[in-house]
Amino acid sequence: MSTAILTGQPVPGSPLEGDLRSLGFDVRIASDAAETETLLAAVPAGQRVAVVDARFVGHVHALRIGLTDPRFAASAVPGAVSAKPEARAGLTRALHTTTSGNGGGSATAVEALADHIAEAIEAEGQDVHRPDLGTLVATVPGDPQARNEARQAVAAVDEEAVRLRTAVKSRDGFFTTYCISPYSRYIARWCARRGLTPNQVTTASLLTALIAAGCAATGTRGGFIAAGLLLLFSFVLDCTDGQLARYSLQYSTLGAWLDATFDRAKEYAYYAGLALGAARGGDDVWALALGAMVLQTCRHVVDFSFNEANHDATANTSPTAALSDKLDSVGWTVWVRRMIVLPIGERWAMIAVLTAVTTPRITLVVLIIGCALAACYTTAGRVLRSLTRKATRTDRAAQALSDLADNGPLASAFAALGARPWLRPAPVIAFAGGAALVGTALANSYGSPVVVVGAVAYVVLSGLALAQPLKAPLDWLVPPFFRAAEYGTVLVLAAKADVNGALPAAFGLVAAVAYHHYDTVYRIKGGTGAPPHWLVRAIGGQEGRVLVVALAAALLHDTDFTVALTVFAVAVALVVLVESIRFWVTAHKRGAPAVHDEGEPA
Question: Which of 66, 232, 258, 532 is the most exposed place for a label (fewest CB within 10 A)?
Fold first, then answer.
């Protein structure tokens, strides 16, 4: 339960008390500012509290987004201010400062008290979220005529239409915007009215996608058609969960994590389903399925690394970025540019249609070609931005890139050699090590000890690449190069083994490691920092895992290599999943800030 304190007696006929109760507030009335302080002190420390001007006139949804959004410690709209438990101390100080500076418990201190409190909180340096109300009304009229005009303004706006419109993500792909969101928002409202939560819808989306993967695994035409339809329905639910969260403001730390990780689990499980279905028809496409997963994961790492390197950079200007912003201001180019990157909506629609009308091999080949072209486009644009950008990158950004690199104890030992003038540029060192490793694996037969030599060289170069802070313009390329090297090596060695089960085992290993890397990203984006060092050491770091796989290929028979990959995959999955689930559930119970991605679709 949350508590709302009305400053003064409500105006006769005002629905304010009922509106606040409908939002989950226990309403209390203070006759003056001194009583407001007394009532505030009586509210349990673990509750959200709001101070609302009794003369407030406005939409219920204006109060909802201004007083109940769980993503912000403190928020306000005209005539109302709210604070979560972590911001209660600031609100209490602001109230005391405001009333003390306006004659203590005088009646004048009650008028506009909520607005004064919000200003005082900001004066202390604490952020107060002030949502964009758009056409929604939130005001404190000073006389009966102004009140009547405000009420007329409230009646003139269809609040429910605004709420439905704003439930849709502000920036999304063409397919999602025009083919899904026009009706999925109504599904979100249906769910809200029946008490369903975004996490329940997210779970339903995952289960639907897994059933779709199972249908694809049957290898029959009917199964493929059902798989395509179910994959599309899973995506509808995937859009619905976020719209439900925005519609009802049910954001949570756990929900953001589930939404992000389930998206990857759904897509990669579907790739596996396609491979299993193809195998039933006598076609082995596990290498294509694994290649698609590797490519898609590397694309995401490029996105994450670039954003982390630049989101808090100072003097962050670039003529390339200016041109991009200009293109985004022209209608048709916006949609062309969003479709070129093959976001999740377009990608899943393409996969679903191709699954239903073609074969798994064609589906995966087209997917890889499309993702490769999208990767070239986005990466080239980001390289140009980085080279033309005048920016000073922060220590926080350098640390984030270092965490994304996922170096373990072996590489860290070489990084400890310290800064050397010749240890630059870092992306060149990382690329050289990865290219040499994957090239060696490609050029030699299975079991060749030369691959182990390449892996040892890669370990050394992985450490040297991080010997200095990653603050140079292109240093954000280091984590993607490491991901491509690790995943690519596993793919090549499993393919070289040329034995049944090797590629599926490699798929499982890469999926487990990719989960760890995505988990690292979401922790950094959520401001909670990277996974603990012991976890990185326990699973070897990216260079350690490469060395283990290379040694296994050199020392074990091809069938034993398959067993080793399987055991390694299970071990990594168990360690990272147990620690990750423990962390996110604990963070959710602690009331960690709710993170909700409103950026470009992945």
Answer: 532
pLDDT tens digits, 50-88:
999 999 999 999 999 999 999 899 999 999 999 999 999
- By the 10 Å C-beta count (0-12 exposed, 13-18 middle, 19+ buried), 445 is classed as exposed
Rounded Cα distance, 585 and 533, in Å: 20
Percent helix, strand, coil in the chain, to 5, is 70, 5, 25
Q: Are the beta carbons of 273 and 216 closer than 8 angstroms? A: yes
Q: What confidence score (pLDDT) does residue 324 get? A: 62
Angle at 501 between CA 500 and CA 503, to 5 degrees: 105
Residue 4's nearest CA partner among 15, 21, 12 is 21
- Segment 218-225 shows an average pLDDT of 97
Q: State which amino acid sits at residue 299.
A: R
Which amino acid type is present at position 377?
Y
| 346-375 tens-digit pLDDT | 999 999 999 999 999 999 999 999 999 999
Long-range contacts of 90-93 (CB under 8 A, 24+ apart): 90/121, 90/124, 90/126, 91/40, 91/49, 91/51, 91/117, 91/121, 92/37, 92/40, 92/41, 93/120, 93/124
Q: What is the pTM of this model?
A: 0.91
For residue 481, count other CB atoms closer than 10 A to its CB.
Answer: 26
Torsions phi, psi of 330, nearest 5?
A: -105, 125
Beta strand 2-7 with 25-30: parallel, antiparallel or unpaired?
Answer: parallel
- Whose tokens are 């397919």? That residue is 175
